[in-house]
Structure formats: structure tokens, C-alpha cells
């Protein structure tokens, strides 16, 4: 049995794609997932399954479509993958964890799209794209930021969901506690 973190894209944000996490937790448990936990209301799920991560991702999406009538993109990571994404953060650990973000991308973006981004155009905000992740630092917070998950989706032509490093760190802690 493998332990996974599943991120849901754009749920419970600004009154859209509303999913009660307690209800989702019950549905997932009734459909074969074990030790289901949710963390905060923004679509973070920890669960055990004998399925591989692609099957987990697809089954979660299908269950949400069936039970909530919502087409929500899910991203599934095992502990090693999530730890690698966290460890690959290019920004200093001294920066506030609520101002540094990891965006999980549905696929590795095309090189020409990555090359078309001009990091200096967004200063003082900073970002780097590495494989299937983008990392960005918002020194002035997210309220007026140019960089966001939507920015990376549009520019890189992929689906994306992001979490600040505080949330990712907490999910890694929860994974380690349940192993």
C-alpha cells in the first residue's frame, strides 16, 4: 500500500468549485482509499492506495465528477516525489514560507514556452521553472502579484496548482507521521 498526497486544482477558491473536504474524505474512503486525511480546505488530501499514482489521480477526478459534478484536475505525488519538489526549491529557506510557492504542472512545459518567459519583466517577483514544477517568490505577497498559478498555466500551456512552501512542508510532515 502506497501513501500519496493529492492536490486538487482550484477548489474552494472565491466561492467556486466548492467541495466539503469531510464529504470528499468519506467518498474516497467508501471507494477503496484508506487512511484518508485532508489538510485545510484548499484541496490537499493524503491517502493510501494499492493503485499507482496515475490511477489514483484519475480515480479521484472521476469520483469528484460523479459526486460533485465538477471537472477538477488532480495531481498525485508520493512522498519521494513531493520531497524532491520541495528540496528543488531554488529560493532561500530564510524567506517567509507563505511568500514562496511551488506550482505543480500537469506536464513538463515545452522548452520554447519556457524560453519565452522573461524573468526580469516581473521583478521584484522571481521565478524558475524546473521540470514539472515552477517556483516563485512574491516578496510583496500575493494580493497584487503578477505571478500566480494562472500565469504559469497561460504562459506554459499546462494545468497547474500551487501551494506555498509552508503547506508543502506540513504535508511532508504528515506523510512522515503516517508511514
TrEMBL record:
Q: Which residues form the signal peptide?
A: none
- Record's SUPFAM superfamilies? SP0830-like
Pfam families xrefs: DUF1697
Top-level taxon of origin? Bacteria
Q: Which InterPro entries match?
A: DUF1697
Q: Any idea what this protein is called? A: DUF1697 domain-containing protein
Whose protein is this, by species? Sphingobacterium humi
Amino acid at each position: 500500500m502506497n501513501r500519496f498526497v493529492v492536490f486538487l486544482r482550484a477548489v474552494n477558491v472565491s466561492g467556486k468549485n466548492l467541495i466539503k473536504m469531510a464529504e470528499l474524505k468519506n467518498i474516497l474512503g467508501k471507494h477503496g482509499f484508506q487512511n484518508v486525511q485532508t489538510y485545510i480546505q484548499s484541496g490537499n488530501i493524503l491517502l493510501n492506495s494499492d493503485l499507482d499514482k496515475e490511477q489514483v489521480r484519475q480515480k479521484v477526478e472521476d469520483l469528484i465528477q460523479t459526486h460533485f459534478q465538477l471537472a477538477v484536475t488532480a495531481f498525485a505525488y508520493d512522498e519521494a516525489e513531493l520531497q524532491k519538489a520541495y528540496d528543488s526549491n531554488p529560493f532561500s529557506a530564510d524567506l517567509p514560507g507563505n511568500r514562496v510557492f511551488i506550482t505543480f504542472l500537469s506536464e513538463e512545459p515545452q522548452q520554447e514556452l519556457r524560453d519565452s518567459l522573461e524573468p526580469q519583466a516581473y521583478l521584484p517577483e522571481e521565478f524558475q521553472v524546473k521540470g514539472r514544477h515552477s517556483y516563485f517568490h512574491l516578496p510583496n505577497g500575493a494580493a497584487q502579484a503578477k505571478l500566480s498559478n494562472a500565469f504559469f498555466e497561460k504562459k506554459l500551456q499546462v494545468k497547474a496548482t500551487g501551494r506555498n512552501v509552508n503547506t508543502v512542508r506540513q504535508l511532508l510532515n504528515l506523510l512522515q507521521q503516517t508511514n
